[in-house]
Write a structure and sequence with these properties.
Blueprint (H helix, E strand, L loop, with lengths): L1 E6 L1 E3 L21 E3 L1 H16 L5 E8 L4 H9 L4 E6 L8 H13 L5 E5 L10 H9 L2 E12 L2 E7 L5 E7 L2 E5 L11 H7 L4 E5 L31 H15 L5
Parallel strand pairs: 1-4, 1-6, 4-5, 5-11, 6-10, 7-10
Antiparallel strand pairs: 2-3, 7-8, 8-9
Amino acid sequence: MKILVCIKQVPDMESRFKPDASGVWYAETDLAFRVNEYDEYAIEQAVLLKEQLGGEPEVTVLSIGADRVVEAIKKGLSMGGDRGVHVQDAAAHLKDSWQVASIIAAYAAGEGFDLILTGLQSQDRGSAQVGVTVAELLDYACATTVVGFEYADGTVTVKRELEGGVKGTVRLKTPAVVTCQLGLNQPRYPTLPNIMKAKKKEVRVIPVAELLHQEQRVAQVEFRAPARKGSAMVLEGELTDQVDRLIGILKDKTAVLR
């Protein structure tokens, strides 16, 4: 059995963002990066399945991006992945979901993966389109927003998170694509021995031009701070005094109260 886990390296949400010189993307100077949170659930599920099946499945961890994404791949390997694939693309952040999915599908098509795991969405784009598009391009069965996972005899049984707290059960014959949601599992922390082992595992580097055989399309992403508009008033003191002042302001300066 062969499993592919697709991960993305995203800016740490605790970082301070600022537009680059062109204003269309964030400046990476002093910006911290991490593995996309949803993708960590995908890595963990792949490793859990590998353990369930006695270590027989081979888990490949793939990421698209500049040289820095090797750090994210190494984390996936230290969590239990067997080998890594780095699709080298310094302009990955400018590609849309269709292009990213096309790259992944072009690689996967020749490898014969039984199961492809992705995160539900990336924390920086949040489109939730890559996993389902990969499934469409490969003609694989697909289940999204998965919070429960079981595998037996070539069949994947998943629980999907639906609206209003309702969950649906879906059974898929492999090959299949599954996108992983918060609550599916608890991602493990890599141990020091496994971190050291990950340094020796294979990371294959593939130039993006070998996989993306279509005219380059660039998604123009605006990243600009909102313009300052007016000022704010902070009300302090006892609560009753604040209420009285607020009512007075609403009467004098707005049409809310008359």
